[in-house]
Amino acid sequence: MPSMVVIATTAVPDHLRGALSRWTSEVVPGIFVGSVSARVRDELWHAVTEVVGNGAAVLVHPATTEQGYAIRTAGTRRRVPIDFDGLTLIRMTAAPKVKEMQSPS
User: Fold this and answer.
1) 3-state secondary structure labels for all residues of 33-101
2) Cβ of 44: how many Cβ atoms within 10 Å?
3) CA–CA dist 57, 48 (Å, integer)
4) What pLDDT band is residue 6 in, cutting at 50, 70 and 90?
């Protein structure tokens, strides 16, 4: 039975956006929404994880959890989902440090 999925992407190759738009609608740049079967959802997510590269992606789909949904991530992200006694919470990681420019002494 089809269920709603949301896939959010950042800095992914154009061909991946094209592949996702075959099964979903790109409602705003990088946000894909659709109603697909679990098998199609898993195949789409496999395609995302294979080519995400330096970009990032998040998949939100219905699941039999207390919250009613599950979150999957791929790529490098500052927000990381963690399991806290059966609830999915989002942990923020530290921002990457910028190297200070050294001035000549």
Assistant:
1) EEEECHHHHHHHHHHHHHHCCCCEEEEEEECCCCCCEEEEEEECCCEEEEEECCEEEEEECCCCCCCCC
2) 22
3) 7
4) very high
Location of structure tokens 């530290």: 94
Instruction: Give the count of beta carbons closer than 10 Å to the beta carbon of residue 24.
Output: 21
Contact, 82 vs 88, CB < 8 A?
Answer: yes
How confident is residue 73, by pLDDT bands cut at 50, 70 and 90? Answer: very high
pLDDT at 104: 64
- Kindly state the greatest CA–CA separation across the chain: 68
